[in-house]
Amino acid sequence: MNRENGALGLAGLPRELEKRKSVLLGELRHRTLWFIRLRWAVPPCIIAGAFISSMIGFEFQFRAVVLTAAAIACYNLALYIVGRSIRGEDQNQRQFIYTLTYTQVALDYGAMFFLVHFTGGAASPLIFFFIFHIMFAAILLPTRWAFFFAGLASAGMIFLASAEYLGLLPHHPLVFRGGAIDLTKHPSHMAVELLFFSTSVFVTAIFSTSIQRMLRKRILKLSQLSETVVSLNDKFESLYQMMQHIGPNKRLDDLLEAMTAELSDVMHVRGTSIKLLSDDGRRLRYEAVYGLGDNFFKGKIIDLTKSSLNRKIIDGQAYVAGNVTEREMFQFGEDLEKARIQSVLFVPMNVENRVIGILGAYCSRSDRFTQNDVDFFKLAAGLVSIALENARAYQAIDDLIKERSWFMLKLAHNLRAPLGAMHSMLEVVRGKYLGDISEKQEEHLRRVDRRVGSMIDIINELLILAKGRTEGGTEMTQEVDLAIIAGRIHRTFQDEAEEKGIRFDVHVSSDLPLIRGNNQALEQMIENLVSNAVKYTFSGGRVTLEMSAENQGKVSIEVKDTGIGIPREEKPKLFTEFFRAANAKDVEEVGTGLGLAIVGEIVDQHGGQIKVESEEGIGTTVRVIIPDHL
Amino acid sequence: MSKSKMILIVDDDPDFRESIRIILEVSGYQTDMASNGREAMECLQSRKPDLMILDIMMTTDTEGFDLAFELKNSEQYKDLPIILLTGFLEKVREEGPDEYQHILGEQWPAKWLFEKPVDHHRLLNKVADILSDG
Q1: C-alpha closest to that of A232 among A379, A93, A100
Q2: What DSSP letter does each residue of A64-132 carry, written as one string?
Q3: What digits encode the pLDDT tens for the residues A155-214?
Q4: What residues of chain A lie within 8 A of the CB of B116, using their CB?
Q5: Residue of B9, B13, B15 to mutate when probing chain A, most A C-beta within 10 A
Q6: What is this structure's pTM?
Q7: Would an 8 Å CB–CB cutoff place B87 in contact with chain A?
Q8: What is the ipTM of this complex?
């Protein structure tokens, strides 16, 4: 595990360096343009200075000074035009930006020497303006250039003074109110002046470069900090995304896939994998692999007894490798080699001190993972584990519910066949096909048959309930025209209502929209409601089925009767399986108690709402609201 | 009502088969019985029935259907009237056209369908109806 530390120390160095250069280059470009803007002020200042100086009595080469100012304005215009063409953070323009910087410093130097030469040479008060140039160079260019320009200023001045002294260049002495300040006539004075000038420029170079060094460091640090903040923000975002995956209605496979994809993205790595520990804790199986190609690892199994590396991770250690050369350490080393993976990072996945698997990250660059990555990955592994356990728990519950419903379904199917046969055989005896039976026997058989019939009813309704609860039991995407269903219900119950002396009306509003759902289930639901209403309403009463459009494409289905009503205290149990209200049993001895449970189930399936208003002895209104889409 | 008509009852439930046999024989029909599609084919070849009462779900969920389709598509038996029986009407509804009224449409191999448990009076009336037409 010593390799781990080495890997961490070196990680990501070239990338850092590249970043640093890019930040500094941006800064340089920014300042170059700033100096060009600043320089616009120089020619007017020179001209103004020249005017004021001549007014107070200085005499110098006025025309040459003004021409120099004009030259500065000209080359600044050229610099401005060229400088504007530099765009953004284009790395290819690095050389260009440096050239531009050197050019403008060199031009400024040239202008300076001209100005100094025409305003008295070594005696010119303008020589101290060289200090500004040293400072600009220190700000703009690498530190050694400040010293170079300090040397250049100093050497340039010595050369200029010597040339004028020796007569190689014409001397233009500065004249103040008739008296010429001519240092060429006082060489020792000139030497002292030049010595102090040189000292000043070098001291300036030292100070300004050291300040600049500090500034540069701070800029880099700031840029690193802001980068860290951005990357932390990304990571938080990703953790948040992963937390969103923790919850119900998630298939385990989908969840694992989503998480590995999310992690690969935020960590900027080639791929990630999730290995889960088998129940006996002896094998690891690759359950999800993202970004490494289809055949990579997925479904492969690691034998823990043969992998000391994975055993260590399962024991709680994170593992980082920056240069995967010791392939014998990995059971699927050839896969890593094929995918050209250089760096790997593995952390254990814990839930309440129990390890359930290993989270892995893969990168084709060597020495990719830092301690920060390890810390973040551990955090992510914790979240992935929780999400996983959650999904597993939900799946287990879901499986149990489905298993129960499937069992109900099977049971109902198997009970119905023998009951059907029983009923048929009873009918044969009751129909006297096997010979005469006494009235007493007939009455007895009638009662047996009635009980068989009610058992068949219960089973039929259980079948409907169970079917709704098994996976894929009910197709919910059919386009349903409730008006057609209303017509059929009307025909179905018309005769029965008439026989009982009940008035049965059906009203369907003309603007009733089509809805999405299950045709058969919705018909079953309305049938159950109407059947109840007719059953528990006495002669002379009234049953109404009304369908109308609600806002937002919803549909209201209302079944209203003037029947026996529901006792207030029994209302909460209305939709419970096998529940029958006391007054209902008085009216109808036999009943399944499943009709309203089925109604409740179907309303749920359609994402609808149900409301029951009832008063005992007065009547009941059941109102179902179904949304237009699911 | 012709008393010499022969009806073939095909159902895998012996008790159910027996009760149908009794009511049909008491009502004066001759009957033959089979408990699956293969036996039914044998019966068809040995004695030519005038009507077939056929359960849909037997050894397999669609054995009765398969047999009915086979007969409808054969030159020899395409005119044999068939009454289908099913214990699982909702399953039939799902597999067939949406509406019950249309369940015995053109693509279906039979014109008549009864849900179990079967009302004997209705069945007898229907049988009499079909056979008197023939």
Answers
A1: A379
A2: HHHHHHHHHHHHHHHHHHHHHT--TT-GGGHHHHHHHHHHHHHHHHHHHHHHHHHTTGGG-GGGGGHHH
A3: 999 998 888 888 888 888 888 877 877 777 788 888 898 899 999 999 999 998 888 888
A4: 420, 424
A5: B15
A6: 0.51
A7: yes
A8: 0.81
